[in-house]
Design brief:
The protein is built from eleven helices and 14 strands. By secondary structure, the protein is an alpha/beta fold. It has two domains: 232 residues, P-loop containing nucleotide triphosphate hydrolases (Rossmann fold, 3-Layer(aba) Sandwich); 81 residues, Alpha-Beta Plaits, CATH 3.30.70. β4 and β5 form a beta hairpin. α3 crosses α4, α4 packs across α5 and α5 packs parallel to α6. The chain starts with a strand and ends with a strand. The structure holds adenosine-5'-diphosphate. Adenosine-5'-diphosphate binds next to β1 and α1.
């Protein structure tokens, strides 16, 4: 539904072209939550802003539902933009307007509804984001999470099919982040809303995205389903971002593990195998001992996953490792 074809973008700085995004192709499917992750300066905001043409590409085409937005005349562009809502890290609310007026603004600008219709729609939107009781308040009277909910209600006012989220939870505390991410997941599910979000936090991607692209210095260095990219990162930047999400340094390998003897493995479980007692069964069958050195069990969107670093000790270690492979557990053997 959103397709980038040979798109690139440079900014003009002191008379020189500075590339922000090198030529790339990318497809974002209707109804998915697509994450774009990268460090600061990687080109995330630029990529997001190309979708609603807040930034114009230096070359290439951007198709929304098959229509080239870069070729739209100003009237058509205004119309297409109504189908694309956007929320921001710092909410961008009008401080002198009430919550209800902030949400009503895009409806007034569209100029298609009567006052009564606008009032009804604002009530509906505020109920949707859990703010019915706050319609008459001003932004300064709200918490960060509430302000972002107003931003979301405003972005949804014209019933867009796409929502762009620009670091939407980066200014929020962890608990508020969770509730805003849960709201985004609910909107994606209930309204079939396509969500494109940019973030520098792998945890945000892990919790809500279906697919992800990793940006590094203006290049898409990796993309795919979140489970694949998160559990088996192929690029150094992705590995670093996953390690950060796990609260580890860039290098998770600890040389002390080798002194424990045995074979050192990093196991990844995804889906049903996460909850099944694979290790204890294999330990019994092959008379081996597993020592768990490091581990994490959590969810990627709704699907459980686990990652464990273990040693395997015993005469039948080879057979135990073959049994792990047979059980469909992905693993890599770690060496110094
Ligand atoms: P991110 O969102 O990943 O932090 P950006 O898309 O904001 O990255 O920036 C990518 C690169 O483009 C950076 O080098 C940044 O300095 C540059 N850049 C972004 N916006 C502009 C602009 N309006 N003018 C000039 N350079 C810009």
């Amino acid at each position: 539904m959103i397709e980038f074809i040979d798109v690139h973008k440079s900014y003009r700085l002191k008379g020189q072209e500075a590339p922000a995004l090198h030529p790339f192709n990318l497809k974002i499917k209707a109804g998915e939550v697509f994450g774009i992750i990268g460090h600061s300066g990687a080109g995330k905001s630029t990529l997001l802003r190309l979708i609603n043409l807040l930034e114009r590409p230096s070359g290439g085409h951007i198709l929304i539902d098959g229509e080239d937005i870069t070729a739209a005349d100003p009237a058509r562009l205004r119309q297409m933009r109504r189908g694309i809502g956007m929320i921001f890290q710092h909410f961008n609310l009008l401080a002198t307007r009430t919550v209800a007026d902030n949400v009503a603004l895009p409806l007034r600008l569209a100029g298609k509804s009567s006052s009564a219709q606008i009032h009804a729609r604002v009530q509906e939107l505020l109920a949707r984001v859990g703010l019915s009781a706050h319609a008459g308040k001003y932004p300064s009277e709200l918490s960060g999470g509430q302000k972002q909910r107003v931003g979301i209600a405003r972005a949804l006012a014209n019933a867009p099919s796409v929502l762009l989220c620009d670091e939407a939870t980066s200014a929020l505390d962890p608990q508020t982040t969770s509730s805003v991410l849960a709201l985004l997941a609910e909107l994606n599910r209930d309204l079939k809303l396509t969500i494109v979000l940019i973030t520098h936090e792998m945890d945000v991607v892990r919790r809500v995205c279906d697919r992800v692209a990793v940006l590094d210095s203006g290049h898409i260095v990796e993309q795919g389903p979140v489970a694949q990219v998160f559990l088996h990162p192929g690029h150094a930047t992705t590995r670093q971002m996953v390690s950060e999400a796990h609260g580890q340094g860039a290098e998770a390998f600890d040389a002390d593990y080798l002194e424990l003897g045995g074979r050192l493995l990093r196991l990844s479980f995804h889906g049903a195998s996460t909850w099944s007692p694979v290790l204890s069964r294999i330990a019994r069958a092959h008379q081996v001992d597993f020592t768990i050195l490091d581990g994490r069990i959590d969810k990627i969107k709704q699907t459980p996953y686990g990652q464990l670093t273990v040693t395997v000790q015993g005469d039948e270690a080879d057979a135990a490792i073959a049994a792990l492979r047979h059980a469909g557990i992905h693993f890599e053997e770690l060496h110094s």
